[in-house]
Write a structure and sequence with these properties.
- Strands 3-2-4-1-5 form a five-stranded parallel sheet, sandwiched between helices.
- The protein contains twelve helices and ten strands.
- It has three domains: 110 residues, Tetrapyrrole methylase, N-terminal domain (Cobalt-precorrin-4 Transmethylase, domain 1), CATH 3.40.1010; 116 residues, Tetrapyrrole methylase, C-terminal domain (Methyltransferase, Cobalt-precorrin-4 Transmethylase, Domain 2, 2-Layer Sandwich); 37 residues, no CATH class.
- Helix 10 packs across helix 11.
- The chain is an alpha/beta fold.
- Strand 6, helix 6 and strand 7 form a beta-alpha-beta unit.
Amino acid sequence: MPDKKTSLVEISHNAGVLYVVATPIGNLDDITLRAIEVLNNCDLIAAEDSRHSKKLLNHLGINTRIVAYHDHNERQKAQSLLDRCKLGTSIALVSDAGTPLISDPGYILVKQALEQGIKVEPVPGACAAISALSVAGLPSDRFSFEGFLPAKSTAREVKLHLLQTESRTLIFYESTHRIINCLISMLACFGEQRKATLAKELTKSHESIIHGTFKEIITWLETAVERQKGEFVILVEGAAETERTRDLPDDEPLMLRLMQDLSVKQAAQLAADLTGKRKKLFYNIGIQQPK
């Protein structure tokens, strides 16, 4: 009998190791002893921003060679790094802050490394999402990390609407320039009663952790412009039982809403991206609408 086909990949013991190394999200003292050891002893560090990571390495007295590995060169750079691993080179992957791959580059590199039989080893440490969850006072046994919401308001509102009945605690990242608009969209979608936590500049000198309703958090941010600057984690209480009984939006109303701002083709693509359904389904709905 021939062997059944399997997707199991055998890890090569002759190749180098790809380490996924978490670094501090603000306070440099949050680096782990193991992370220091790996960064000091590996052959190469692949960094999201080599200039940014150099500051951390200088602080630690580490002189390991750095190469840039970021969103813009990820696909082109991944294979060349893995080719080095196959020859025995050990590489440490780091992002600007926190755990790589969590809203940061690295997924392609890790995926291809595993497919090619290269050992991938985690070096755990700081993560803004988990740090914020640990102090939010919201249920932490089940949560959904959503990362950054779409930048455009229509796509952001549709995405939030799809999460309206989610019972798990929701975790989002947001930037300085969109924080107010993001919270306004959340207020419109989730309502005035949902509890929320805003964690700003975690572990840094201007760290602030605010608990309250969306209205209260927005008011706090608008009271002083400097409060709107920094890196933010937003945590939202999951839907109550009464909210979870609501039906999710049907395909046609969703498509009609998107078509108010987008062409049929654009609306169909966005609807497919947000729901995981086929683009053709939404496109057919769009072209059947009266002009």
